[in-house]
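User: I'm writing a short methods note and want a consistent example. For Glycerol kinase, I'll paste the sequence; you return only the structure tokens, no commentary, since I'll be parsing the reply automatically.
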Amino acid sequence: MPTTPLLLSIDQCTTSSRAVLFEKDGRCAFIAQLEFKQIFPHPGWVEHDPEEIWSTTLSVVRDAVAASRRMNRQIASIGITNQRETAVIWDRHNGKPLYNAIVWQDRRTAGYCDTLKRAGHEPTVMAKTGLLLDPYFSATKIAWILDQVPDARRRAEAGDLAFGTIDSFLLWRLTGGKTHATDATNAARTLLFNIHSNRWDTELLSLFDITATILPVVTDCAADFGQTSRTLLDESLSIGGMAGDQQAAAFGQACFRPGMIKSTYGTGCFVLMNTGGTAVASQNKLLTTIGYRLNGQSSYALEGSIFVAGAAVQWLRDGLGLIKTAEETEAIANTLEHNQGVYLVPAFTGLGAPHWDADARGALLGLTRGTGIKEIVRATLESVCYQTHDLFQAMADDGVTPTRLRVDGGMVSNRWLCQFLADILELPVQRPVQTETTALGAAYLAGLQCGLFDSFQDLEQNWQLDTEFSPALRADTREALLEGWHQAIRRVRSAPST
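Assistant:
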């Protein structure tokens, strides 16, 4: 029986909460997962109930702890990874949220962002944070809650309220209110954190009219985040790792060297390229962000963010009822030789990088009497690959030319998707044996903190290739498909491209 302790990863996603137990070699020993409700109060608004996030998280964590006991294995440490940018404000005294969590996909503050842009603030924001002025990020969500909830601003100034992204909210609850902290990768997504000085920025706090009293302490990604309350799990476990989901996925993919690049296909799609100690400023609307921070030193990344990837497949299943399971889409796509001119632009909550059009809306284009469920399903899968191509084109325009791509996330179990991605990108696409890389990255960070791992080399040795997908599409076919996509994008834009 193995005697090496396990690592417990809390992976709080946009649509579900998961707890994963990992062996030291990166193999998964146990997974528990619970979905929770998506709340859409108005068009373009997306919310979650923080209490449901907490209850589902606590439930799966308890399942994982119980599983470790059945295996007679200890848990060395806990790592937390989370949907980024989603904002929660709660009462410090009773822990109750003031309002639902406003999700990263939410676009309600688009007008506020436009006002700040017209006032000329975006260059300063970009220089300090590496981010654009967009509703995607946390600051305008925080300001909205403080403005809309009665008496919230007075309570914030009095020190009675706490803000956090989901990692911080879960940490508060797990430690019984003893730890109000976040890590540098999550802080870097708020529009309030200076990624160069590594601290909350007073000028940005003033710009968004947010008091510093509500902010968490910012730490390294591997740090002492405290202990779980014994009343929750009947034992006290250390929490030693934390990173936003996309940075955690890059860490789990062992993208430790500058130039290494990964793309995660979950609810959205996110491409991250390690740029090392240099914060590369994109000229083509990509984001500059912190990839991870260890021992007080930040490693930076260039990122492209797509708001809807797997969420489009979920829409086919839950919204339209065209499929019963996501797994069906691979077989359906394989039955067609061509997309028949059908394109889905899944701009359900606007367009992310490199377009950054908050007012764009989704469209299904190219329909004929011959269009059926199969064509719509294939167009949905294709849209994920086309959007990834747009990100890679922006990187190329910035002078970055990747030679291969490591992929992960739930969607990459679909072989058809991976092959079409390789065809459209004209790059080898590498799918690892362990595709649970987001949860794995958080586990690795916790393992570094508790001494289970000594170095990056230990983690690099765990990465194993499952399948490499090589480009096989004719160049003229590829160009025709992309031209159809670009026409579709132009038709959903709220304003001409700049």
